[in-house]
Structure formats: structure tokens, C-alpha cells
Amino acid sequence: MPQLRQSIITGDWVVFAPERAKRPSDYVWKAHQKQEKGDGCPFCIESKTSSYPERVRTLDKETTYTVPNKFPAFIEDPRMCDPKRYKIEDEFYSMRSSLGGHDVVVVRDHDQDLPRFTEAIWDDILETFTDQYKHFKDMCNVEYVMPIYNHGPEAAASIDHPHAQIFSSIIIPNIVAREISYTKQRHDDRKECSFCELIEHEKEQNLRIIFENDDFVAFTFYAARFPFEIWILPKKHQSHFTDMKGNDRGNLVKICRQIFNRLDVVLNDPPLNFFIHSAPVKERPMVSYHWHMEVAPRLTNYGGYEMGSGVIIDIINPESAADYLRMGQKVKNSAKQT
Ligand SMILES: [Zn+2]
Ligand SMILES: [Zn+2]
Ligand SMILES: [Zn+2]
């Protein structure tokens, strides 16, 4: 029987209807042909030029370089402080300039791929994210910084050459605003960080945990909006991504390599997005919010009900998804129906 589950982070409901699932082997992705490296690839060409601005050039690392997005969603302009914030258009609508910043972190080697990134690549990407959080914290028109990664054309990666993106925005994005407000309300009632409670509960239950090390834990999310959705959280309470200290980043690198490698093995390199949710850059340390990384494989599309209701119908229970990921073998036809 389908079940409704509520997220303790947003309060949103998700429908689980595993009987709608196809055979388990249908989760296994049919591989797509990656574009060859060479002159046709914009990021191979870009790496040979040095025409990009001084600020992003300081973000260059051994295995990655950073460029401003050619078609930015948020325009970087430190002079436009826009104290009025909103403008009223046609004496009716509210609007504002889409300010912030939009950068691309490119892995230098075209032939590297997310599931097999080396420790050095992960470390360079995560260090660039940290640098960008610190840079945009002081910008008058940036409230939020969100690093993301699109892997595969079905997950909106328009260029095959491996790259992450960093969106810095004058607004706090909708989902993050909901997470912050719902967990703040929950904190007012319970005097606990919902994410710390979540980690404790998942460790006790041990139904959905896939990997764990001294500083991080990764599990499938109870109220997952996507089949095989995975959350990675720091075990210590940290509201901001930049709160990582000591060995934290090294252990984040380790767990990321395990997770993306495991998804590749079990689901044959599925298209996916990952994104980092952290407290807003100008916010002081928050007791009710806890940064995390969400991994969203893109194995299904949304239909009219999801679009019309905002309620997602998921077709695999996160407990079964965790079983497959822990087993670490490609999902086969003979596997039990989920
Ligand atoms: Zn390339
Ligand atoms: Zn916490
Ligand atoms: Zn989140």
C-alpha cells in the first residue's frame, strides 16, 4: 500500500508507491556516449587561455580551474548594492536585479569523470567551494552561495567535460528557506537541531546508512524525493560549510568518492545532481541549521501530479535503495521486487 512520509527538514510530504516501479533492473542506466576531448570542447579550449578575470584566476588549483559562467543566472557586480531591494513593476509586480555571481569549476582533465574523481580532484573542488563561500560572504549583494554539480545530459549537464558550478545569489533559494524555517520552528519546540537528531536516529536504526567515517555519515533519506536520493552530513554540528576543520575535508573527500563510485557500480553511471545546503553566508552560527550535501539521481521524470501538487511520488523505498547500495552490485532482474 502506498505510504505518505514527511520530511523532518522541510515538513514536505512524499508519496511512496513502490508497486508503481518497473523491474529493479530498470533502474540501471543505459550508458550515453561521452564527447571526445579536443578542440570542440569549450572547457578544453578555455583551459589554454588566460583571458579570464584576476579574481577567478586566484582560484586555480592543480587539477581544476575556475571561470565565470558565460551565461550567468546571477550577475556579479560588487558596486550594485541595491539597498532598495525590490522594485514595483507596472505598479503591481515585485522585481529585483538578479545579482550575485555564477562561476564554473572545471576539472582540467577532460577524461576524468565524477564517479572516479581522484582525492586530489575532490579536494581541489571542495577547496574552491570554500574559497567562494569566503569571498561572497563579504559581497553586499550576496545572501546565499550554493555549489552544485550536474552529471549527465539528463541531469542538465550541457557540456560533457566535468565541471561544478557555484551559484551566488541575492536571494535565499526557496527550498533552503523552507529548510531553515521548518527546522527553526522544530528547534523552538524541541531545543534540538533536527539534522543532529536525524543523524542520531539513522545511526540507531541502521536501515538507511550506506557509508560512515569519523566525521561524515551518508544515508538514503527517509522522505526521499528521488529514487536513491542520498544525504551526506557532518557528524559534528556545523551550520556553515566553512565550519569544516582539521581532517573534516579529507573525510568528506573519502565519503564522496565512496558514494559516487557506488552509484556508478550499482546503477551504471546514472545521471545525477548534487548540491550543498549551508546556512546563509551572512548568518552567524545557527543552532537549528546544519549544512549537508544532497545527491539526487535523475532516474525518473516528474508527471502532472508532481508538477501540479508539489508532492513527489517516489517508486523505491529508501530502505531498499540503501540495501542495493550497501550490497554494491549492479541491480539485477533476479533481485526482489521493491
Ligand atoms: Zn574538454
Ligand atoms: Zn546539527
Ligand atoms: Zn537540504
Structural class: alpha+beta
- Low-pLDDT ranges: 334-338
Distance, first to last CA:
12 Å
For CATH, the homologous superfamily is named as HIT-like
Features:
single chain; 338 residues; alpha+beta; HIT family, subunit A; nine-stranded antiparallel sheet; three-stranded mixed sheet; 8 helices; 28% helix; disordered C terminus; binds zinc ion
Plain-language structure description:
The chain is of the alpha+beta class. Helices cover 28% and strands 21% of the residues. The chain contains eight helices and 14 strands. It has a nine-stranded antiparallel β-sheet, sandwiched between helices. It has a three-stranded mixed β-sheet with strand order 1-2-14. It has a two-stranded antiparallel sheet with strand order 4-5. Helix 3 packs across helix 6. The longest helix has 20 residues. The radius of gyration is 20 Å and the shape is globular.
